[in-house]
Every structure is written in C-alpha cells, then in structure tokens.
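User: quick one - fold this with adenosine-5'-triphosphate bound?
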Amino acid sequence: MSNDIILLTVEDVSLSFVQSKESVVKALNHVSFMVKRGEIFGLVGESGSGKSTMGRAIARLVRPQSGSIRLEGKELTRKMSTKERKISAKDVQMIFQDPMSALNPKWTVMQMLLEPLNIHQNSLSSAEKQSAVFAMMEEVGLNPAYANRYVHEFSGGQRQRISIARALMNRPKLLICDESIAALDLSIQAQIVNLLKKLRKEFDLSMIFISHDLAMVNYISDRIGVIYKGDLVEMGDADQVYHHPQHAYTKSLLNAIPKVAFT
Ligand SMILES: Nc1ncnc2c1ncn2[C@@H]1O[C@H](COP(=O)(O)OP(=O)(O)OP(=O)(O)O)[C@@H](O)[C@H]1O
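Assistant: Sure. Structure tokens for the protein plus adenosine-5'-triphosphate:
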C-alpha cells in the first residue's frame, strides 16, 4: 500500500429494500469502514448478507436511507448534478461476476474500450484514444491484435480482462469487484486475482473485493470486513481475520470454505 491517505469513508450506512407492505429487507445495518488509497479491502459474507448492496451503494446504483459515503471527503449519497454524476462515475467503477452484463456483444473490444474515453476524454485525438486502448489491452494481458474481435470470441477469463480494461480506461480511484471471479475455473481465478494485484500497484488503485470466499479474499486483501445479515461483524488486517477470527460467523465461514489453493 502506497500510503495511509483515506480514499473512501463509509459511515453508519443503513439500507432497506421494501419488497411489500409486510416485507422489508434490511440489507445494510449501520455499516462503517474506510478504504485507504492503494488498499484492497475485502468484503466477505455468504449469499444475501448485503455485500453487493454495499458495493452498489458506493457505486451510486442504490441509495442508502441513512449514513454517509464519502470519496476523498465528497459525499456520494447526496443528489448530484449531471456533471457531478459524470465525474463521480469516472472515479468509482464496478465489475461483476458476469462480464457480459457490462459488455455489448455487438461491439468489438476496441469499440467497448473507446466508449469510456469518448465520454470522459474529449481532448484526446482518435489516434491517442486508439493507442490508449492498445496499451490498456496489454496491461490486462490481452493481445492488442484482437482489438477487432467480439466478446463471444473470448474465453470467460479473457472477457473478465476486457471488463477490467473497460473499467480502468478512465483511471478510476476505486474499483469494486463484485464476485468478479466466482464463475471462473480456479486456475483462471488465480490469474485474474494476480492481475488485479498488479494493476492496483501500477494504477495506485484502491479496490473493494467482494466475495463469499474467505480464502480468496484473504489472498488478495490488505484488510477484510465480514458482513452478516447486513451487519459488519468483524474487521481487521487480512491475516488477523483469516488466522485469528474473533466472530463466530467468521469462524463458520472459515470452516465452510475448502482452503486448498490460496492459503
Ligand atoms: N433490488 C432489491 N430489491 C429487494 N431486495 C433486494 C434487492 N437487492 C438485494 N436485496 C435483498 O437484500 C439482501 C442483501 O442482498 P445482497 O445482494 O446485497 O447480498 P449479497 O451478500 O451480495 O449476496 P449475493 O452474493 O447472493 O448477491 C438480500 O436479502 C437480498 O434479497
């Protein structure tokens, strides 16, 4: 980690989904944590614990009923003008389990990676944008010669590399990875996680790595937060949480996950 500057502050965030008059799901319950610049913060919990909702709230895809989410001191939960929204969308990017959800099957890789530049980098010439795309393809381990291929021509791991490249085109400050490797084979998972670690260093990027897999979260993260039924029940340095869990829920997560590849 490059320094101790705080990038993201999540303070006392609560968020409920009203499903019907009788049914309200409390997805987040007074959650607080912070992420430093250049840090990878792992958010772990079983399905339905509220991890994705936390990530989506930071990416401004859902709005908490109460609490504060600040990026470099700027409140993200407040109403924003179109211009402010555009800037905030550039700073926080999110990648998902299924890269196809964010990738247009009718576009080539070049078109997909040019789009973020066309939105945010109007001062660049076409040639500069194209060379930025080639450079980013190399960064994420894709052969630039494949720039004119379509997404369906790539494997699952390569598609996730494309979505990482797209997310990084405008140099965000924070990348939220929501179960981004869960659907991949174990060996490919390792490649993508190692790529994320490399990119974090090269781009001085902060990340929130969301996963149900505590072993994987420990492998990639500097610190870990454990979330259970919307409550952040434990938080600490990755090794501390992984090797000396304090909360019964963390211990049960640890027991439930086969610890083969990433210990
Ligand atoms: N848009 C929504 N409308 C209603 N309820 C929702 C919505 N999104 C999430 N929930 C509910 O909020 C709770 C937390 O869901 P969330 O997706 O954040 O959990 P998760 O830990 O990310 O689980 P998973 O890994 O299965 O996505 C769950 O009970 C879920 O059913």
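One thing worth noting: The two ends are 21 Å apart (CA to CA).
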